[in-house]
Amino acid sequence: MRLDTPEGNFPPTRRTVAASLFMSGYAAAALSACASPVTTPSDELVVEDVHVTGAGGYSLPAYLARPAGQGRRGAIVVVNEIFGIHDYIKDVCRRFAREGYAALAPDYFDRAGDPAPLTDFAQIRDIVATASHEQVMGDTQGVIDWLKAQSFVKRDAIGVTGFCWGGTVVWMAAALSPDVKAGVAWYGRLVRPQPGSWGAEEERPWPYDVAATIHAPVLGLYAEDDRGIPLESVENMRAALAAADNPTGSEIIVYPGAQHGFHADYRDSYNAEAAADGWRRCLAWFRDHGVS
User: Catalytic pick from 4, 107, 114, 226?
Assistant: First the structure.
């Protein structure tokens, strides 16, 4: 089963008024009974729930992790999968924080609900479908603007990384936001879905369509055995980048034998070797391109 995948005046959700904004635990629809997820401690970190101004002035909740020390540092926007903000995404933020970054994961789905505790994929997809491309790009820029205003962030050292649904967001943000210094996209869809399939109903551009206008270097990390993202689409994206002369130096890595979601240590698709190599490349990519 593939787990990858309008702005409006929505009423406040339960999480926007609760003491804790995000669910505790892992995404119920994808959690493997055999999983042993990585757990990153929060000692010597500042970890908190914040609100940023998203598209249309919406008060968007976000999970922040950063080193406790003084001084400005590079920042990473962490874009979730279709399951929203759950323990895996929060742990990724803490991993970045322990590497010296301020990491912020916004809840793009907050207007419609929380997919994390759901097990019905139809319900999850209904929530995800409310987050239009226009809204997501507006939210992402709002998150970046919030980071740039913080005393602990270097304004010119902001990167974006994302997984699955969020991997697509990375490519698009690198084409649309002048503030993105570099991106790392983990197995995000690259081309428009086939007519009639999930995600095809919205008239919007996809990474392949904007290859010529990507202005920040993006590292794409993909899986050879991804049943939702065929290698043909990966090769088409490489060709599109090459045709645009790829001045950013964007690059795509494909992991042999890996499946979609290979970094997600709470899922059956987790591949420890590919995940470790991808994480090493991710950190090096950001540092090599000025996000540090």
Answer: 226
- Whole-angstrom distance, CA of residue 230 vs CA of residue 234: 7
Residues 92/94/100/103 CA torsion (nearest 10 deg): 70
Residue recorded with tokens 């609900």 = 113
Active-site residue identified among 260, 263, 282, 289:
260
Which pLDDT score is estimated for 15? 38
E-assigned strands of the chain? 45-53, 59-67, 73-79, 102-106, 153-163, 182-186, 218-223, 251-255
Q: How confident is the model at residue 71 (pLDDT cuts 50, 70, 90)?
A: very high
Q: Which two tokens stand for residue 29?
A: 């629809």
Beta bridge partners of 221: 186, 253
pLDDT tens-digit series, residues 224-237: 999 999 999 999 99
How is residue 55 annotated by DSSP?
A: G
DSSP 185-210: EES---SPPPTTSTT-SS----GGGG
Active site residue 226: yes
Q: DSSP letter at 41?
A: -
Structural domains in the chain, CATH included, are: 14-196+204-288 (3.40.50.1820)
Condensed to tens digits (0 to 9), the pLDDT of residues 238-256 reads 999 999 887 789 999 999 9
The one catalytic residue in 93, 107, 164, 179 is 164
Question: Is-contact 105 11, C-beta < 8 A?
Answer: no
Residues 6+ apart with CB under 8 A from 186: 161, 162, 163, 164, 166, 167, 221, 263, 278
| pLDDT at 219 (0 to 100) | 98
Residue 97 structure tokens: 């924080």
